Amino acid sequence: MQQQRENWGSRLGFIMAAAGSAVGLGNIWRFPYTAGENGGGAFILIYLGFVFVIGISVMTAELALGRKTSLAAVGALKSQNRNWTFVGVLGVLSAFLILGFYPVVGGWSLAYIVKSLSGILATPDTIPDAFGIFISNPVEPLLWMLLFLAMNITIVAKGIAAGIEKAGKVLMPMLFALLVLLAIRSVTLPGAGAGIDFLLKPDFSKVTATTFLAALGQAFFSLSLGMGIMLTYGSYLGKDQNLPQNAFIITSMDTLVAILAGLAIFPALFAFGLEPTAGAGLVFVVVPTIFAHMGVLGPVFSTLFFIALAVAALTSSISLLETVTAYFIDERGMDRKKAVYGIGASMVVTNTLASLSLGAMSGVSILGVGFFDFFDILTDKIFLAIGGLLISVFVGWFMNKEDLRDELTNQGKISFGLFNVWYNLIKYVIPIAISFVAVAGIISVTQTGLMLFGLALIVFLAIFSKKLA
Ligand code: PHE
C-alpha cells in the first residue's frame, strides 16, 4: 500500500517550508491583537518564555518523532505505541478544524490586496466600518475564501518538493522584506513612542491565568505545534539533518516575524490614536489606516502588505492541509490528488459556515459561539496545548531515551550538548507547566460548554482511536 515516500529537495527548502508553516496569520494577524488584549509587553515576555523553553523543545520532539518513523502524525504515534494513536488523530483533527476558519482570513487578505489597489482604502475614516461591512457580507468574503482555497489545494496537490517547498522558497523572503519595510515606516511615525512603550514595557497588573493560557495557546499556534504538523514535515526530512538546530532556526524566524509585525502595527496604531484591543479586525483596520495617511505611496504599501499577509497565510494553510492529506496517504493508502480534493471539498463547507457566522448566520451558535470562534477557540485554547502536552509525555515517558539521543545526534554523527536539558524539559518540566497553565486557563475561560466539549472529545478519541485509525 505504502507509496514511494517523498522528501524535501534541500535543507533551505525544508526550513522555508517549516518556517512558512510557522509564520502565518498567527504572527501578523493574531499576535498583535492577542498581545493588545492581554496587556502588551507583559504578554510578550511570557510569550517569549513559552516559545523558547516549551515551544522549541516540543518542536524538536515533533521533528524527531516524524523523522524517526518517516510517518505522518497518526502513523508515527501508532507505529511507536498503538495506545497513543489518538494523539495523532487529535492532531489531524486540530489541523482540520483550523483549516475551517484559516482560509476565511486568508480570503480577507486577498480581498484587501485588491481593495488597496483600487484605492477604496484611501480614506481613513471609512476603514473601520468598511471591514465590518465586508466580513459580514454573505457573498463577497466567500468568493475570496474560495480563491484562497483553490490556491492552497493546487499547491498541496503538487506534492512536497514541487509544490510546498517551491512556494516557501519564493514567498518567505518576500514576506520578510515587506515586514521590515513596514516596521521601519511605523516606528518612524510621529507619536510612535507610545506604541513602542506598549510593546516593550510590561504591565504586570494585566496578567491573569488567562494571560498565560493565551500566551501558551499563541505559542503553540504560532509555531504550528501540538498537532503533528512539524512531525509531518519532519517525516520528509533527511537523516543527515540537524534537528535541534533546525528547530532553533524555525522558532527564531517565527518570533522575529511576530515582533516585526508588532513593530509594524503598534507604533502606528498609537500614532493614529486607535485602540490596541481592536480584536480580530486589528490588522485589517490599523494597517490600511497607516497607509491611508501616507499619501500617494499609501496604496502601493498597502497592496504589498496584504500580499505579504496572504502569502504568510497560504504557506501555513498549506502545512495544515498537508497534515490532513498525509494522514490519508499514509494510513488510508489514498492517492495524493484524491485526498487533497476530498479534503478541499469539506473545507468549502466548514469555511462557508465560519465566514457566514460573522454575518448572515451570526444568530447560529454551537455551545455558545459561532462557527468561526468554535473552530478557533477549540483548537487554540484546548487542542494545541493538550496535543503538545501529550506529545511531550509520550516522547518523555514512552520512548527510549537512547533512541532519542541517537535520533537527535544523527546516530552520534553530530553533537547536541543540550540533550539532557531537552530531555528533562520534555519529560518533567513541560508536562507540568502545560498542565498548570491549561487547568488554570480552562477554568477561567468563559465558554464552559465549549471547554467541556473539547475535553470530552479528547477523552473520546483516547478511548476509540485505536478502532477508528
Ligand atoms: N503557525 C501558523 C500561524 O502562525 C498557523 C498554524 C497553526 C499553521 C497550526 C499550522 C498549524 O499562522
- Note the main sheet: none
Give the tally of structural domains: 1
Q: Helix and strand string, N-terminal first?
A: HHHHHHHHHHHHHHHHHHHH
Beta-strand proportion = under 5%
Briefly say what this structure is.
This protein has 469 residues and is mainly alpha-helical.
Please provide a written account of the structure:
With 469 residues, this protein is mostly helical. It has a single domain, classed as Amino acid/polyamine transporter I (Up-down Bundle), CATH 1.20.1740. 76% of the residues lie in helices and 0% in strands. The chain has 20 helices and no strands. The protein has helices spanning 11-22, 25-37, 41-69, 73-80, 85-98, 102-117, 127-136, 140-158, 160-187, 193-200, 209-222, 229-234, 243-271, 282-292, 298-332, 336-356, 371-398, 401-408, 419-444, 448-468. The radius of gyration is 21 Å and the shape is globular. Residues 21-22, 24-27, 98, 221-222, 224, 227, 229, 316, 319-320 line the site of phenylalanine (PHE). Phenylalanine (PHE) binds at residues 21-22, 24-27, 98, 221-222, 224, 227, 229, 316, 319-320.
